[in-house]
Amino acid sequence: MRFTPAATVTAMAAALLLGGATAATAINSYNATPAPERTEVGALVATWDDDGDPATPDRVDWVCSGTMVDTDTFLTAAHCTTDWPADVRFFVSLDQDVQAGLDAAAKKYPGDPAAVAKAVAVEGVAHSEPGYPGNSADSHDIAVVQLPAKQSPHGGASPPRSCPAPVSSTSSARRG
Questions:
Q1: CA nearest 136: which of 21, 32, 30, 13?
Q2: What is the DSSP secondary structure assignment for residue 8, as one 8-state letter?
């Protein structure tokens, strides 16, 4: 098969478009349509003090999306878990409508963000890639939230039947 210059440019443009997704866009469900069959996809919920006044209630909100990669590890982006106040707490929810759950829990537990978060999610500990410098387009923009082994954020949903097979670091089909 012989490529013309136009075909070569078109092929290069397609390769750039297909292979050019940034790390931040790889883990993103903003404005996505719910997919009930995807029980491993969820939301990262955070509680934090946003005014520095311990007398006022902290905030609670879902801040990012991610996916369960095994029964106690939630994969998300490092830009979701860095640059927070020291007292931030992270939770993982696999509910299909996290915002509705947070709204209902806020009515049930007014002024208690931790109780609101615990009503819809499981608390975990975030670990960000040490090489992440703070740019969401960086290839080190990756983090995990480690959950307690005996708790599952699945609620009534079934855990994923299987996780994708790991990609070998020596594979000739590596993505960059």
A1: 21
A2: H
pTM, 2 dp: 0.67
DSSP class of 124: E
| 143-146 and 122-128 strand pairing | antiparallel
Between vectors from CA 150 to CA 148 and to CA 155, what angle results, nearest 5°? 95
Rounded CA-CA distance 116/57 in Å is 12
For residue 167, pLDDT over 60 is answered with no
Residue ranges of alpha helices (H) inside the chain are 5-19, 23-26, 98-108, 113-120
10 Å CB burial of residue 52 (0-12, 13-18, 19+) is exposed
Average pLDDT, the chain: 73
- Asked if 63 contacts 30 with a C-beta cutoff of 8 angstroms, the reply is no
Residue 31 contacts residue 8 (beta carbons within 8 Å): no
CB 126 within 8 A of CB 83: no
Residues 123, 113: Cα–Cα separation, whole Å = 12
Query: At residue 21, does pLDDT exceed 50?
Result: no
Instruction: Count CA within 13 A, CB hemisphere, residue 17.
Output: 6
